[in-house]
Amino acid sequence: MMVGGEFEIGQVPFNPDGWGPPDSSNLNLNLPVNVPFAPFSRSDKLGRIADWTRTNFNNPNQNRSKNPSDSVFDFSNDDSFPSSGAADDDSSFRLVDGKPPPKPKFGPKWRFQQQRQLPQRRDEEVEAKKREAEKERARRDRHYNNNRSNANNMMRREPLKSSVDIQPEWNMLDQIPFSTFSKLSFSVPEPEDLLLCGALEFYDRSFDRITPKNERRLERFKNRNFFKVTTTDDPVIRRLANEDKATVFATDTILSTLMCAPRSVYSWDIVVQRVGNKLFFDKRDGSQLDLLSVHETSQEPLPEAKDDINSSYSLGVEAAYINQNFSQQVLIRDGNKVAFDEPNPFANEGEEVASVAYRYRRWKLDNDMYLVARCEVQSVVEINNQRSFLTLNALNEFDSKYSGVDWRQKLETQRGAVLATELKNNANKMAKWTAQALLASADMMKLGYVSRVHPRDHFNHVILAVVGYKPREFASQINLNTSNMWGIVKSIVDLCMKLNEGKYVLVKDPSKPQVRIYEVPADAFENDYVEEPLPEDEQVQPPTEDAEAAEPNAATNDVEEKEVVAQA
């Protein structure tokens, strides 16, 4: 809108010959000064009329004396207006915006334009990828730091203690590295049952349906007695020895310790007595064999203090307590029992004993050499009118930070991962359980998953799950070779049969994968035998604390309040 005057439109000439302005030669027009005009056809590409972004300094060859305001209309060097008569050249066409395109910050631009998305969506995905990368980097750093701390802890860990004090008068006869055990192999025929003693209660199948969401409290069975009787104190074995039923005698606990020796880390000891042409494998009173190792093969070190609830000794007592109670809680306690040839040989008349059956079995090791072992099964189940023997054992979770797996979260969805972790941390214990099930010819071995109610409460526990495995299949799963197991037993038996009559002890070295054989006095490990440890500068092995060597059985009885060691 014009104020104070009228807007005058200039003269617009009419072109009767075609489209566009007429030929300037036929017109006498007053055109603006210094404004170039180029004729064009409809097929020509239009260029710039004026470029206000260009200055005189961009073209050093330009005449500086020329009026700078006219430079915006100067297209003498611009190819957008070709000279008349020149052929069309598409390559001379340029965009209006003469600025070079910005280079992408992270590589070629086409990488991010393969899938066209909204900018907001793309930004969200980029941020999400950045967060995931940060989490992955933090996880790797944490894993690296944990491995470094574990390695440092392993380096700072105190040396393990020997299970028995090495006395000055003991004579070391031989030491056998575990590497020689891996090459041994021996096949034995199927064993024969000489005698079955005790009584078994039936297994309660409702425990197979337990999950972490419907856990059951672990009960205590203080009125039932459990027996951990060594070989020479067993009246049945003494009777079989007098009848010359075999030349070698042992229990399933002792045999499984020998069979799985290459997997052991903690120190253990077995007493060997050569009487005439017979060989007896015994355990000491208060031996570590009465307890169960926990996290023996784990890389995570346990607290060294013996009174700590998570020390190896305290966890061994707790595991034995859990296994005894678990083996009785999963039974149908209605008084219905399966009785065998003889009653429990270690129980007094009228005494309430745990559900257990002893199978005295004989294996042929050589033409004139037989081995008799007392094997245990804890329960029986009837399937299709056939009775099957079961062994009952329980794994215990004490603190998930040591294993790295929370059973309450993983048992339902990742049970295989939980089992793999336990096989890594308790390889020796689970191999021994499997070997005992194979020795007893159990049809099924039940593994219970028992956890503390609270990580700092080692008295109250809950059952989270119960899983059954066939012993032979489970043995192949954990790479337990029965031929190698019997090869180890056969080699130790042959070695001990070459010894003179007397008493010997097999001691697993606490710091090296090897076992040593010592000749000990005839009254060693008796009640009137006085032990005097070697001086520090003469010790062959690191000695244990006196309390650890002398009191484990008493501590077990104090905690469990129901273990009775029968003396023949």
UniProtKB/TrEMBL annotation:
Keywords linked to the UniProt accession: Cytoplasm, Initiation factor, Protein biosynthesis, RNA-binding
GO BP terms: cap-dependent translational initiation; formation of cytoplasmic translation initiation complex
Region (RNA gate): 288-302
Biased composition (Acidic residues): 529-549
Localization of this protein: Cytoplasm
Major localization class: cytoplasm
Region of interest called Disordered, as start-end residue ranges on this chain: 54-152, 529-568
Compositional bias (Basic and acidic residues): 120-139
Bias-annotated ranges (Low complexity): 68-84, 107-118
Bias (Polar residues) ranges: 54-66
Source domain of life: Eukaryota
Entry keyword annotation includes RNA-binding: yes
Reported function: mRNA cap-binding component of the eukaryotic translation initiation factor 3 (eIF-3) complex, which is involved in protein synthesis of a specialized repertoire of mRNAs and, together with other initiation factors, stimulates binding of mRNA and methionyl-tRNAi to the 40S ribosome. The eIF-3 complex specifically targets and initiates translation of a subset of mRNAs involved in cell proliferation. In the eIF-3 complex, eif3d specifically recognizes and binds the 7-methylguanosine cap of a subset of mRNAs.
Subunit structure: Component of the eukaryotic translation initiation factor 3 (eIF-3) complex.
Entry text on domains: The RNA gate region regulates mRNA cap recognition to prevent promiscuous mRNA-binding before assembly of eif3d into the full eukaryotic translation initiation factor 3 (eIF-3) complex.
UniProt-recorded name of the protein: Eukaryotic translation initiation factor 3 subunit D
Originating species: Quercus rubra
